[in-house]
User: Fold these one by one.
Assistant:
Number 1:
Amino acid sequence: MARQVKKIICIVCPRGCEITVEIEDGEIKSIKGYTCPLGKKYAEKEVVNPERILMSVVKCINGDLPVVSVKTSKPIPLSMMKKASKALSDVSVEAPVKIGDKIIDNLLDLGVEVVATRPCNEERRAE
C-alpha cells in the first residue's frame, strides 16, 4: 500500500488554510485543515486533477505592440500547460485587437477559449 501525504495551501480565499491530504493507493483517505467546504473541494481537485488559468502572449501583426496578452477563459489541466503554451507560440493575430476578443475558440480541444486581456491597436504609419 503506497501512502502519500500532500500539504496544500488553499488559494480560494484570503485565509490561506494549510490543508493536509492523505492518499493511499491513489485514493483520498482524509483531508484536514480546511475551514470551509470550498477549501475541501479545492484540495480534492488539486490532488486529483490540478488546473490553472494560462496567461501568455501571442504575436500582433501590424500592431502598436509586438504582442498582445491573452488568457484562457477557464482553467486547463496543469498537465496540458506546456503543450498549450507551445500552441500559443505559433499563433498570431492582426491588429486591431480589443480586450475580450476571442483569439482561439477551442484550445487543444479542451473546450476552452483564449481571449485577449489587453488591446493592440493598429500601428500608426508616418505620413
Note: Helices lie at 37-48, 81-89.
Number 2:
Amino acid sequence: MFIQVLKSKIHRVTVTDARLDYIGSITIDADLLDAAGIIPGERVFIVDNNNGSRLDTYTIAGERGSGTICLNGAAARMVQPGDIVIIMAYATITPEEAKDFSPKIIFPDTTTNLLS
C-alpha cells in the first residue's frame, strides 16, 4: 500500500501575475522551486488564502530572483495578482517510509516572494 504525504510547500507567497491566454500551469521563481525541492513540470496544488480557491496544475520555472508567481491559463480565473497562495507538492510513499519523512517547507517574504 502507498499513501500520499506532503513533500514540499511554498508557504504564503503573493501572486504577481495571472495570464489567461497561456497554455496553463504556474510559473514560479526558479530559486523558490529549488529551495522547496519542486521540479519544473511537477504537479502542485494551490490554495488561495484570499478567496478559498483550490486547484492543481504543473510548474514552470520562472526567472531566478524575480519573485514571480504567475497563474497561467484557466487557473488565472481563480486568483488575482496580490492574492496570497500556498503551493504544495505531494509524494506517494509507503507508510513505513512516511514514518521518517519530513516535508521541505519554505517561508518566502510575502512582499517580495524572495527567500531571506
Note: The first helix runs from residue 30 to 36.
